[in-house]
Amino acid sequence: MTVLTQAPEGAQQESVRRVHEVARRAQLAAGDLALATRADKDAALAAMAQALVDHADEIVAANAADLERGRADGMNTGLQDRLRLTPQRIAQIADAVREVIALPDPTGEVLRGSTLPNGLQIRQIRVPMGVIGMIYESRPNVTADAAALGVKSGNAMILRGGSAAALSNAVIVAALRSALAEHGLPADSVQLLDGGREDVTSLITARGLVDLVIPRGGAGLIQTVVLGATVPVIETGIGNVHVYVDSAADLVMARDIVINSKLRRTSVCNAAETLLVHREVAATFLPTMLGDFAARQVRLHLDERAGVVAHDTGVGFEPATAADWATEYLDAEIAVGVVDSVDAAIDHINANGSRHTEVIVTENRAAARRFVARVDAAVVAVNASSAFTDGGQFGMGAEIGISTQKLHARGPMALPELTSTKWVLEGDGQIRS
Amino acid sequence: MTVLTQAPEGAQQESVRRVHEVARRAQLAAGDLALATRADKDAALAAMAQALVDHADEIVAANAADLERGRADGMNTGLQDRLRLTPQRIAQIADAVREVIALPDPTGEVLRGSTLPNGLQIRQIRVPMGVIGMIYESRPNVTADAAALGVKSGNAMILRGGSAAALSNAVIVAALRSALAEHGLPADSVQLLDGGREDVTSLITARGLVDLVIPRGGAGLIQTVVLGATVPVIETGIGNVHVYVDSAADLVMARDIVINSKLRRTSVCNAAETLLVHREVAATFLPTMLGDFAARQVRLHLDERAGVVAHDTGVGFEPATAADWATEYLDAEIAVGVVDSVDAAIDHINANGSRHTEVIVTENRAAARRFVARVDAAVVAVNASSAFTDGGQFGMGAEIGISTQKLHARGPMALPELTSTKWVLEGDGQIRS
After folding, report:
1. Where is each Aldehyde dehydrogenase domain found (chains A, B) (predicted)?
2. What pTM was computed for the model?
3. Helices and strands (H and E) in chain B: how many
């Protein structure tokens, strides 16, 4: 594993000691949080939001120092913009924390239950996960979002943000912790790891102390965490998203959906990366579609049959390689292929997709049903943009990430996805024969 | 990791090639299984059960060879008994497969859904997990159980049983595969790995090919899998179970619950391993209880205060060490301690328990509520034996294991716990602004 080899042994041992201490404090905090009422937690959330506003000047100053260092290190302007905090952005972050107040408390919900033949009453209830580690990159708003969702769901959060936002995150977390303490909840409900990369290794191997780790960021980060972790992990956010335009598609609708899926925001995980078109409509659909892309400076990687159309219509392109079908461009760039059938599209998607979001555009019921049944992904959409894969859009209120794994949670994750369950048995002396 | 170092590099590479080939066949089978109707799957289950009965002679012969080798290798008689198959036991295994027919098909169940303000209809449905690897020890009935639960939930199963039952498992799996093929379902829905330990490593690192691995067996097996796996894992079955007898307990009830929890079957994961007694009732309760244990040849590990009682009543014991509080004896052996309060009992349990099943005996509502709220375990029981932690007892019909982790499934796991979910979006051209 990369991160293990990067830390000298002494530094790693020192990190393990320090991170385990943080995790033990988190466990104690989690014990108190699990007993807190919704009213307690909501009051603390209101105070956390206010603390962000009250400390806006300090946060902006710390953020300016982060930006200064970023510029000195040659950070590109796109990343600088993601990192930048203004009083207005801080107010938005505080509003996002306040929105969590209105969400129902998932803990305590009774999921199922019955009375057994011997009179024993059993019920399964939602309980907090306990201690959740979150490892993420760049944008400091994630720090406040994760803290708010953690408190509401009764979990103690250990946050490990990107080094580029270290100073911003430190001030944000200090503000949140003081607000928690003032409202009678443990400050250690939210802790920030500020050591080097060896802290990531220490966190993801803290078995028995950390109940779940959620990595949120680029493919490299996710791989490092998944391959190195011995605590349970939920993979998030890699989206090699396809839109398939079927032979029975409404081609006007298809064009709108492709443009929205690819270009609404190119840097997000639900953005389309590959367009597949049924051969029967390729000659009708592709000339206009490729022209649309060219007009919007979208770089094109085309398979042989799509290339023929582009050639005829005079659009510039590169031939698609095997790597293109597997690439999440996260940019104004798309791979385009022509397929012979809905099953060929499905097979291509299941072979190359990242199981995030897959779209079919068709007016044919059988094709839609087959696509929904056979495509293996967190979200499968018929005649709708891939951009809807989002906790807010799904009505979840807030999201901590989009799971692309099958275990525990799949798709947008919000408060209920941050909980576990507990079976409670109540009897009056039942024993088993 | 132990298993990695045990295989020479060449053998490991050969195993990876072979196991990946098995997993690819399983993926294809899983694709077909996901499209199979409940009627298809139930018909195949009936044929699988019948095939076990039809091949009983072959199975018994293979099992006799396994037993012969076990005796030659010095296998103890308890393990021999667990391994032994008779025509009667095979009939019971077939009956267990038939019982799965009556259980509802979990796949396709709509878990939640709504229509978004823009008219987009969304719903979350249960789908099969895909390919599940199962690594287990000894008893060959697990082979048929896992195959049946896998087929019913639409999952292709890759089974890796203990080497002691290798011949028995091979004949059982061959019978099940022929029954599947005769009923139009893929034989590769059930496959058996028969290589050495390197196959375990290959299976638990087959990312992208295997969706879930479930280890079922002793602590060593679970540790090896959890520490070495890069595919998602559900930990099962380690049960360091406590019974706490509160100051407000009905002591007659407490005695029955302790005896049932400890001695109903000592070798199972829901058996009690530690008894904690409130100091106010220790002098009343312990003399009888320790006498009961002594009369049943239960080996006692007592803390200082319990030791004083034993000394006064003339019962033999050993002093409990720190290791005793953490030990799952799985035998006629128990650790006993005296605690000062319900919170002291809870703290002891949270520090030493394996988060499986924890019991309080009390007539005090506040103590019961506090124990239920604060104890961190899959199952928390008030005034009932720990022996009820069992999928069959919970009315789940069948169980593939008892999860002691918090992610995905906690407690007894049956058919719904072997599924994932998929969000289906249906629109008429919706795009996101």
Report:
1. 11-304
2. 0.93
3. 16, 16
